[in-house]
Amino acid sequence: MKKILINWDFMRFLRLGIGLSLGYAAITEHQLIIGVMAGLFLIQAIMNIGCGSKGCNVPFSKKITNQKVEDLSFEELKQKQ
Fold this sequence. Notes:
This protein is mainly α. The chain has helices spanning 2-5, 10-29, 32-47. Helices cover 49% and strands 0% of the residues.
């Protein structure tokens, strides 16, 4: 239950909005397929299972490295005409 109430981000609200609007359309239009799609979006929003087991969130981690960037050399290629 705690997982459902925390970490609400833009994507979860977007899926919730899409699910609710599709649900409304399914009820007013009497369409079963749209209702199934609405249910899928609502389940994704509530459980936060949109893009895998950890959701669509990208983990925020800053790794500071002291590596120096080496100079790169490039060679220009010309196209034959």
